Amino acid sequence: MAFSAIIPSHKTSSLIKISIEDPMKLTPFSQINLVPRKIQASQIANASLPQAFVSKDGMSNSDPLPAFNFEEYMADKGQRVNKALIKAVPLKHPMQIHEAMRYSLLAGGKRVRPILCIAACELVGGEETLAMPVACAVEMIHTMSLIHDDLPCMDNDDLRRGKPTNHKVFGEETAILAGDALLSLAFEHLASKTTENISPDRVVRAIAELGSAVGSEGLVGGQIVDLASEGKEISLNELEYIHLHKTAKLLEASVVCGAIIGGGNDGDVVRVRNYARSIGLLFQVVDDILDVTKSSEELGKTAGKDLVSNKATYPKLIGLDNAKKFAGELMTQAVEELAYFDPARAAPLYHLAKFICDRDN
User: Fold this and answer.
1) SUPFAM superfamilies, alphabetically (predicted)?
2) Band of the pLDDT at 177, cuts 50, 70, 90?
């Protein structure tokens, strides 16, 4: 019998359903069925730590989620990722391009995507060292997307992570090239630095997964539809398409690549994919909420910009309260996917989901 995992969305939005049929075959994103469904979202305030996970056989697991120091985990993993990134992009000739690459890559940030990648690798029994190259690759791609997203021809932002955006410091030409260089380096780094202990098949699968997250059916696809939608009235389904591709797809690839490199089987990969899609959309819903509830100083970037540009957001389409309820529902769905794994190994991913849900910048 196939195991079905579902990620329902709010009201007239869509239902993403993935079934595990063939243990050797991964389900491509383009082949996922979208089925309309109406749901009720839970209150975001109710997204609290569960007392226990549900075991694989559907019975209640009496063991509570182990105690976990999330702040210490994030600080430790973030520091390790930062060291790896510094080493991956040294200052060398041509200095200008490497300075620009490092300026945005090392500008801080929570390193959510690379840490998700490492946590997923460890979830399925792998080690941090196995996942570090792909974790760095994910952050390089994410940084590229931020540099390009901030350009005058895109979102035209002057502030990122509390600092002037790349093109404000280095000029538009250098910023574009810095993003291009980081994108190229990401795949080179993943292919050349992943340990020989990982089978070539898994490395190729990780490269393909990451590539699909960036291209016309991933980040670029979401971005182009987003640009075409500015100033227009769009449906909730169209808004979800934008965010599932522009934001969620790279988060999804981060987690899936970690599970692939860590040795996860097909069932593991599908479940972490569903988890990642929930938190990927959650990330954007929370972003939309923060944009209308926080200041630029609190966010570290320009606040209220979506409202000024008449951009479609979840608060605009369904209201602030319903957006918060939807965020709570997505958090619940993400946690449910973790029920199939060892609670101790799943704890970082649970807390990462809660961090995304509860963050204030």
Assistant:
1) Terpenoid synthases (SSF48576)
2) very high
What tokens appear for 271 in the block?
């479940």
Q: What is the CATH number of domain 70-358?
A: 1.10.600.10
8 Å CB contact between 98 and 92: yes
> Sheet containing 3-8: which strands, arranged edge to edge?
3-8, 14-20, 33-36
CA angle 271, 112, 147 (to 5 degrees): 120
pLDDT, tens digit, 9 for 90 and up, residues 63-98: 445 678 999 999 999 999 999 999 999 999 999 999
Q: Is 279 exposed, middle or buried (0-12, 13-18, 19+ CB in 10 A)?
A: buried
Tokens of 308: 């000024």
The span from the CA of 210 to the CA of 307, in Å, is 32
Tens-digit pLDDT profile for residues 295-338: 656 555 555 555 555 678 898 889 989 999 999 999 999 999 99
pLDDT number for residue 277: 93
Residue where the block lists tokens 């990122």: 160
Strand partners, 237: none
As a whole number of angstroms, the distance between CA 254 and CA 115 comes to 9
Residue type, 207: I
Place of tokens 């990401």: 186
- The C-alpha atoms of residue 65 and residue 187 are separated, in whole angstroms, by 36
**How buried is 168 (Cβ within 10 angstroms: 0-12 exposed, 13-18 middle, 19+ buried)?**
middle
> Whole-angstrom Cα distance, residue 349 to residue 358?
14
Residues 35-39: contacts with CB within 8 Å, 24+ apart? 36/12, 37/8, 37/9, 38/11, 38/12, 39/8, 39/9, 39/10, 39/11, 39/329
- Contacts of residue 203, defined as CB under 8 A and 6 or more positions apart, other chains included, come to 190, 191, 194, 261
Q: Where are the beta strands (DSSP E) in the chain?
A: 3-8, 14-20, 33-36, 159-160, 163-164
